[in-house]
Amino acid sequence: MRVLAIDSSGLTATVAIVEDDQTIAEYTTNYKKTHSQTLLPMIDEMVRMVDADLKEIDAIAVAGGPGSFTGLRIGSATAKGLGLALDKPLIHVPTVDAMAYSMYGCEDIICPIMDARRKQVYTGLYSFSHKKNGDGGLYDEPVFQVLRMQMAVPVEELIRHLNVYRRRVVFLGDGVPVYKEMLAEGLKVPYSFAPSFMNRQRAAAVGALGIRYYEAGRYEAAAEFKPEYLRKSQAERERAEREKNAVPKVRRMTMEDGAAVAEMEHQLFPDAWSEKSILETLEQTNTICLIAEKAGRTAGYLLAYTAADEAEIARIAVVKELQRQGAARALLAELESVCGSEGVKKILLDVRSGNGAARALYTSTGFKEDGIRQRFYENPVEDAILMSRELEINA
Q: GO annotations under biological process (predicted)?
């Protein structure tokens, strides 16, 4: 597959022709001229130098935001015009996704930052995980992980997020020189900055990631393409990418899920578990740890401990924007299934007395109230309602 890739979302203008296993050509400038002056001449020069025929490309991958309003409009108009003229589909590649993808294979947290002014940045958090094969310790292809989708946040808030992960961070992007001092003052985790040949947008990365998106069916007609200038609501971004009636899928939690679960913990609970605590729980043999996914993203999780023929739910949570969409019920149903296969006869839990929604959920799924632990919870102080459910074990 061959794609034309375009990124004019920031100070850098960059275009490329990319195939499945190689970059045919790439032209990048980071200078004072406006993208309206440079983008089409860059494409024309690149095509001429490699004697390419744009009619032979399969699609156009374009960095669709966030980023500069003017830059995104220029890139969008250029890509749409070429797409309509050539009758080729467009692949929307989030700007910061492509920036992170250029750090291919890095197991640190990858944090692209684009200056959004007023001490805010466009960013996202990413990493690559490596899974061992069973034949002599060889590794499979690194898996690109989106820990936090692209967003616009104050630098102080980004620093708080990164300190939660307690992992090394590598920064790149035009926001680095602007906020380098703020990062140095606030970060409590090891960090570094990408070298000059990796620290700005590259169309080759847009094209390589675009090919993966195309193969996954994530492309559209040129007439339908719209850039995303600033996605204020994470919920709106996620809602646009999932099907309205997507069914949550539940699987066993893995070590690679630890960072994402820790982030949700800190978003949802005042007594949040650290990533270390979550990973230690995963390593124990008497635990059942589940992840619920909805439309390709982590929706919630469940941590339970087993002893004899009982299982006690220690944590169950669903991210706020995906609550009341079936994720919690799916987690409880899968827990029941796992318990049934392992000979567990009873599931126990406790819930805040004031959490009416959770109590209603548990009651509707067969749990009964057994008693009260007075003033059990803190922040705020509240009674705990003890609940349990008897399971039918098939002989």
A: tRNA threonylcarbamoyladenosine modification
